[in-house]
Amino acid sequence: MNIRSAASSGRDESRPSRQINIVLRNHDTPAVSGTSAISESSAPKNSAQIGLFQEIGSELDALVGLDNIKELVFEIYALLQVAQMRSEAGLVSGGQAYHMVFKGNPGTGKTTVARIVAKLFQRMGVLTKGHLIEVERADLVGEYIGHTAQKTRDLVKKALGGILFIDEAYSLARGGDKDFGKEAIDTLVKAMEDHRSQFVLILAGYSSEIDYFLMSNPGLPSRFPIQVEFPDYSIDQLVQIAELMAKERDYILMPQAILKLKQHVMLEKDESPHAFSNARYVRNAIEKAIRSQAVRLLNQYEHNSPGKQELMTLRTEDFKL
């Protein structure tokens, strides 16, 4: 997220949150013309925290799209910084609840963002460990009465000091009142009260089904003050993600291979919009192409080794889509 584009988005630049965001995100840049300057005493003094900001910022900026998610993470960062400033000034800086709901289709970056949030909370002192425990229904629900509550309590215990991330959380409510999933929900609600501020619970899943899930227990909606949508990636963003994934593995895509992948992803997304797995689908396509390239090179170079450039290149014929 570019701070210059954020500052020129047409929003009210005099808002304190926006001023803080400008100072925190680019403290070496002069204040944008027309805004009230923030005094140097308001800027973060701790170099470790500035380093954390730069680290978290670089991780977020490396993600394709997700502008609303990036904005949310920096809002939380700014809130935690200002809470420290208020505490130093002798003002009340009471803690907030940070339990979250991540809504969106598969492969839209929910788990990746959860890991970044966990790191932020640990480094800012909200969580003591900052680890991420990722679970699903099978990890929480037992086989008999009482078993589910014990399994759920055990997982909450493991998550203390970090984040408990429940993927496809809505599956806990699918069986109705007699299903053991309800027992898991009730246990989680109690744990959020018993271990307040000791862990963060993030529920993730499809938007409509998560909304239904939150209605399954009257105490759930108010316990998740942060609810955010993870939008599907556009075709161009998916192609960009594919190129980044290839680059991370020291591969490059030929222009015709990119075109072939783009056309295929466009068709696949149009034919199955609800089942399309976004970046996960693209990752699988890249990994399959890498396997195909390996077979092609072995067949093509039976008696010698291909050059470095050839070892790096994914061609059109490698994408057997």
Describe the structure.
With 321 residues, the protein is an alpha/beta fold. It folds into 3 domains: 1-95, no CATH class; 97-231, P-loop containing nucleotide triphosphate hydrolases (Rossmann fold), CATH 3.40.50; 235-318, Helicase, Ruva Protein, domain 3, CATH 1.10.8.60. It has 13 helices and 7 strands. The chain has helices spanning 3-7, 16-25, 47-61, 67-88, 110-123, 137-140, 147-159, 180-194, 207-214, 235-248, 255-271, 279-300, 308-312, and strands at residues 100-104, 132-135, 163-167, 200-205, 226-230, 252-253, 313-314. Strands 2-3-4-1-5 form a 5-stranded parallel β-sheet. Helix 8 links the parallel strand 3 and strand 4 (200-205). Helix 3 packs antiparallel against helix 5, helix 10 crosses helix 11 and helix 10 (235-248) crosses helix 12. It is globular and about 70 Å long. The chain starts with a helix and ends in a 7-residue tail after the last strand.
